[in-house]
Structure formats: structure tokens, C-alpha cells
């Protein structure tokens, strides 16, 4: 009899607690959600500011000193991207209100993944500078495309669609003028292709970028 009473007492205790479980879980979930929201709101602006600062520094690296006096982060326009339905943001470099260059992203598939670059061209379509934004290439080999690892990326400065000739826009192994890296030909080949593609894009959209009605 004692065991039966104890069993009933235990069951009654469990039944009494059951309604509180969903309420407790709901309260914990709401508290966690509120904490995450507060954390997100608190860090959003600092993160955005840090990203803007990094982008400003990268923009400055691909542009010669003194070529622009405007805010390149704000002075932008959106144009159709290279893929159907995509768009491409163009940062306009201006001096005393006149456009002196354009800066935009280009990318190509490298050995280990996409290689994203930022390149700048002047109004005549000459490369002002190129820098790597993101890549996953092999450390010690493909990472020589980074300016901090090797000056190779500066070899595009001053180049255009006419200089070198179209068939020379390639690594030396493919008959072009650009050096490749020992054991990592695919990486520089992709960068050369991306920069050449960027120049083709600028030539196609030059009037829209420069605001020329012709």
C-alpha cells in the first residue's frame, strides 16, 4: 500500500510540473532571442564601420595618389554585371568633379576556388592598379598574387586592351607576357583572365560609366 501511495504521489508531482515545461522553454527561447538581437544591434554599426574602412583602404591602394578627391564609397553606380541578371557596383574616382577613373570587382576561378580582385582603370581604359580581395590558393605558391607576398600583381599597372596585344594577355607558358609561379600556373592564369575581362567590361560600358551620352 505504501508503494502504491508513493507511486501515485510521484505521478501527481510529474503532472503538476508538466504545464510549466513549455512555459519555461518558451521563456528561455525569448530571452535568448532578445540577447541575440541586442548583440546584433550593438555590433552592426562597428562591423559596418570596420568593413567600410577596409574597403576605403583597398580603394586607395589601386588608385594613384592625388587622382581623386571624392568619397569613393558613396560615389557609385550600378550597372549590369557579366552574368545575366547580375549587377556590378562601380566606384567612381573624381577630381574637382570630373571623373578620373573607375574601380570595380572582377573574379575568376583559380586552383582552389574563386579569386576576387579589385581593379581600377583610368578614363582611357588603362589599368591603374589591381589588388586581391579574397582567394583560397595554396599558401607559399598561389598566394604570391597578394601584394604583401610578391610584387607580381603590380605588373598590370599601365596595361590596356591594346597594350599588350590581345594574344599576349596570358602567362608566358601560354604565349603571353605574364610570369607564372613555379607549381602554380593556374592561379596567375586566372588573375590575368580576370583583369583582361575587367578591361573588356570597361570598354563595353565606358559611356555609361563616364556619363558620355555617346
Automatic annotation (TrEMBL):
It is a single-pass membrane protein. Its cofactor is FMN. InterPro entries: FMN-bd (IPR007329), Ion_transpt_RnfG/RsxG (IPR010209). Keywords: Cell inner membrane, Cell membrane, Electron transport, Flavoprotein, FMN, Membrane, Phosphoprotein, Translocase, Transmembrane, Transmembrane helix, Transport. It is found in: Cell inner membrane. The modification FMN phosphoryl threonine is found at residue 185. Residues 110-202 form the FMN-binding domain. Its EC number is 7.-.-.-. It holds the Pfam family FMN_bind. It comes from the Bacteria. The keyword Translocase applies. The keyword Phosphoprotein applies. PANTHER family: ION-TRANSLOCATING OXIDOREDUCTASE COMPLEX SUBUNIT G (PTHR36118). Belongs to the RnfG family. The complex is composed of six subunits: RnfA, RnfB, RnfC, RnfD, RnfE and RnfG. Part of a membrane-bound complex that couples electron transfer with translocation of ions across the membrane. This is Ion-translocating oxidoreductase complex subunit G. It comes from Aromatoleum diolicum. The gene is rsxG.
